[in-house]
Amino acid sequence: MADFFHNSFRLPESLAYLTAAVIHCVLIILVVAVGALLFIWLERKVSGRIQDRLGPTRVGGAFGWLQTLADGIKLIAKEDITPKDADWLLFKLAPYIGFAASYCAYIALPFADGWAARHMNTAVFFILAVLGIEVFSPILAGYASGSKWSLFGAIREAAQVVSYEVPLGMCVVVPVFLCGTMNLVTIGNMQAGLFTNWLVFNDPFTFVIAVVYFTCATASVNRAPFDLAEAESELVAGFHTEYSGLRWSFFFMAEYGSMFLVSGLAAILFFGGWHGPIPIGEILGDFLAYVVTPLVGIVAWLLSFVFKNVHTADHVAVAGHIANSLGCLNFLLKGLIGVTVMMWVRWTLPRLRIDQVMTTCLKYCVPIAAICFLGALGWRVADWTTGADIPLVGIHYGKGGRGMVRESWVEQTQSAKVAENDVPDAPITDPNASDGPTGSVEQSPDELLTMKGGDQ
After folding, report:
1. What DSSP character marks residue 277?
2. CA 139 to chain centre
């Protein structure tokens, strides 16, 4: 994007990068904020359907589209109350820490091939590290509120998040070592093609790992049935009991932002990312080649009158942007499905007790994640999915049509061996020959061994 501003609008390079950074930040905040508004409305409709009622139907038409916006206006108009015994600075700061941690993680989350605010080779590690900072928000909120109910909720949240980060990390490591990288763009592109190439279908262990990941991710974002930090029947409202108005809404905006973040991360790690279950681009190759590409060329020709650096030959790049747009819609759909499943689980299962939450983590999720980690590693080492390899964007079809991911270090090793075999042999000088350039002869290794054997 910085190159676009630098070349098209002739902006200085520093100003172009600054403009691109500001646009990225604004887009992340707007997209996730609008997404939070949509998710709140969606949860009300989902809960209404599960409870055999309609949900919002008044504000914004028959479907209540503007109900969340009306609630936001109400929260802005509410008074911001600070308890008398609260720590003023930490009490005011706590909601923004969770909000910032939830939204900053989107910097490394790609929505399509190359569509990320910041390309990182350690994107997986960055997202998990930033999400770990979010736990400071309820801890500070509970401590600074001066209420025992808020403090109890903060302690529960801290114990739960720290405990579930262990199996969550084990689950994330499995796609990382299968693909040989922590770059989310590379992991997503290695699952292109049919849905059999998705890592969730790579072997039985990765399928179980995907289920464990989603369970731990639900607990890490404090969603029911793991929302003990906000148990109304025990702690009034948990760590945000003393909050009101707009600061109260920041906690929930961070929660819904984290819900889509972990769902999007699951889509990239296990469910093909921005690639659909069927490679429509390859199936409709002729249609794209003879119909869509010329139309894109016409659009590029029209754009050339607006932007001087756009030429009709750039229609290939424009077609790539169109493909990325479709991939982005695919990714958003997968993330929306993950968020909907979390809502479905919330309004279906009852809230667990604190001992049941910790038992689920320590006695079930951690052992299952460890066993599946070793199982996936053994499956990879045994190479049971190998077969007639048909390369397709880093994916090789195995036996039974099942996709298998080739690790990058294997390909690099094979390339190094080929390069080593292609290196010509160094010339060997005959010591018995006369001095000068005409006295040196090149001998093959076989001749040299024969000569040495004869000397011995």
Report:
1. S
2. 26
What pLDDT is attached to residue 389?
37
Structure-block tokens of residue 284? 């409709």
Residue 304 burial by Cβ neighbours in a 10 Å radius (0-12, 13-18, 19+) = middle
**Number of neighbours of residue 212 by Cβ within 10 angstroms:** 21
Mapping DSSP to helix (H, G, I), strand (E, B) and coil, where does residue 344 land? Answer: helix
Both tokens assigned to 219: 């607990």
**Distance, CA of 373 to CA of 247 (rounded, Å):** 41
What does pLDDT average to in each consecutive run of 10 residues of the chain (456 residues)?
Answer: 74 86 85 87 92 88 87 88 88 91 92 87 94 90 89 88 92 93 94 91 94 94 85 75 88 91 96 88 59 63 55 53 82 94 92 89 94 92 54 36 39 49 49 45 46 45
Half-sphere exposure of 156 (CA within 13 A, CB side): 27
Specify the pLDDT at position 187. Answer: 95
pLDDT score of 445: 45
3-state DSSP call for residue 10? Answer: coil
State whether the Cα torsion 30-34-36-39 is positive or negative.
negative
**Element at 396 (helix H, strand E):** strand 395-397
- Residue 51 tokens read as 């409870």
Q: Which of 11, 7, 15 is nearest to 311 (CA)?
A: 7
Question: How far separated are the first and last CA of the chain, in Å rounded?
Answer: 70
Closest CA to 153 of 53, 60, 227, 69: 227
Cβ count within 10 A of residue 217: 24
Q: How many whole angstroms separate alpha carbon 380 and alpha carbon 238?
A: 44
Q: What would the DSSP string read from start to end of 208-250?
A: HHHHHHHHHHHHHTT-TTS-GGG-HHHHTTGGGTT--HHHHHH
Closest CA to 85 of 150, 31, 38, 32: 150
Peptide bond preceding 95 in cis form (omega within 30 of 0) = no
pTM: 0.77
Tokens encoding 251: 């906690």
Tokens of 199: 């890592």
